[in-house]
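# step 3/5: fold
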Amino acid sequence: MKERTLTPHTSHAGLPSQPGTRVLTIPASIDMVNVLGSRDEFLRLLEHELDADILVRGNEVTLTGTTAEVALAADVLTEMVTILRTGQGLTSDNVERIVGMTSASESPAEVLTHNILSNRGKTIRPKTLNQKRYVDAIDAHTVVFGIGPAGTGKTYLAVAKAVQALQAKQVNRIILTRPAIEAGERLGFLPGTLSEKIDPYLRPLYDALHDMMDPDAVPKLLTAGTIEVAPLAYMRGRTLNDAFIILDEAQNTSMEQMKMFLTRLGFGSRIVVTGDVTQIDLPGGQTSGLRAVQGILDGVSDIAFCNLTNHDVVRHKLVGRIVEAYDQYESMTNPPVLRSHRPRRSR
């Protein structure tokens, strides 16, 4: 049973509060400023997001509304306090996510306190329920596909899990790769050496690594071959053992490239494939390997597909709104397309 840190108030006569009203007592060990936010920022957000009326006096919070409204508000406050008791602070984004996850009958505290990696005082955690499911799938399966729009953390969390696995000596090396086809550009038309041509395509992977490891360690690991960052073409003909392998921007692979990549899997290795099927840059209407693979690998054991949505965008709030606006626009301007059903997750 999930621990409850907020307790229902009873009157001096020992009788419970009236139906439709519930009084919660915040533990004395929790500073009310951390619950309500600076200048009541969190309180105003809760009043906007929840239907129950909220009244705060001292460390007591009175909730008024229908039974369902009061129950939801009580659960949200309980989850907030549970997170605060771990020593983790709250932000307005956290509070919004707590409201959304609680209404889905999930435990936000379990999601938002799930630590993946810590470095230089920064802790990497999933921030949404789908992100937590994605991270759990990486732990439970050999091959995982993370599919979703920009800003949903699919690549960032995959790199965090790779670094975690390397530090725990579960793998001997990390291999990060992506196809060098984006926005219609071709390597042959770009200036500079091969390395200089490739670098812009791989830069997001380098950025993620530098966020998660000491800056001095990354060049040494790259030189030693413990971390390899290379275009997808460099994977052909290899068998990759004892490695954590990430294929990023996989929507820009052909079906042949996707098959080639997946069959590089060696003993003791894990693969994470990430991409956004709405951002395909392949020329000439070529079929995306990422779009096709869901139907091909349906039912294959030890493979999981995790779909993230605009609700999982963890960049600036406006990014989520932009993604949602584009989705609505495309649904109105494009004719409906028959798509294969979402493959079930293999057990």
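# step 4/5: annotate
The chain is about 40% helix and 15% strand.
# step 5/5: archive (pending)
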